[in-house]
Amino acid sequence: MKAFLEVAKSGGFQLAADCLHITQSTVSARIKVLETQLCRQLFVRKRDGCELTVAGRHFHRFADVAVRAWEQARQEVALPEELSAVVTLGVQVCR
């Protein structure tokens, strides 16, 4: 799902691969698995990139929630037993 979200964000398989530090063929394979499992094409592939299909746009919100939940679970499960929570701090830099 991370590959899916990155392709959707960047608009291209190669750009997504570069951001994820994996090969373009790995990104393609991961997207193909998702499309096979969902029985839907998620991207319209074009020469100059790609864009989400209707199914892709619908799936995007689920993928986003699932990836964020997974990241949160990984952080919280990894906490030492004597700690009970994670605190996240956001900072905006103005230039």
Walkthrough of the structure:
The chain has one domain: Winged helix-like DNA-binding domain superfamily/Winged helix DNA-binding domain (Arc Repressor Mutant, subunit A, Orthogonal Bundle), CATH 1.10.10.10. 59% of the residues lie in helices and 8% in strands. The protein has 4 helices and 2 strands; from the N terminus they run αααββα. The protein starts with a helix and ends in an 18-residue tail after the last helix.
Topology of helices and strands:
Elements: H1 2-10, H2 13-20, H3 24-38, E1 43-46, E2 49-52, H4 54-77
Antiparallel strand pairs: 1-2
Task: Please write the CATH class name.
Answer: Mainly Alpha
Element-level helix/strand string: HHHEEH
What is the number of E strands?
2
Number of domains: 1
CATH architecture: Orthogonal Bundle
User: What is the fold named in CATH at topology level?
Assistant: Arc Repressor Mutant, subunit A
- Largest beta sheet: strand ordering: 1-2
Distance between the termini: 33 Å
Q: Which strand-content bin applies to the residues?
A: 5-15%
- With helices defined by DSSP (H or I, 4 residues minimum), what is the helix count? 4
Gyration radius from CA atoms, angstroms: 16 Å
Shape: globular
CATH superfamily: Winged helix-like DNA-binding domain superfamily/Winged helix DNA-binding domain
Helical content (DSSP H or I, runs of 4+)? 55-70%
Mean pLDDT: 92
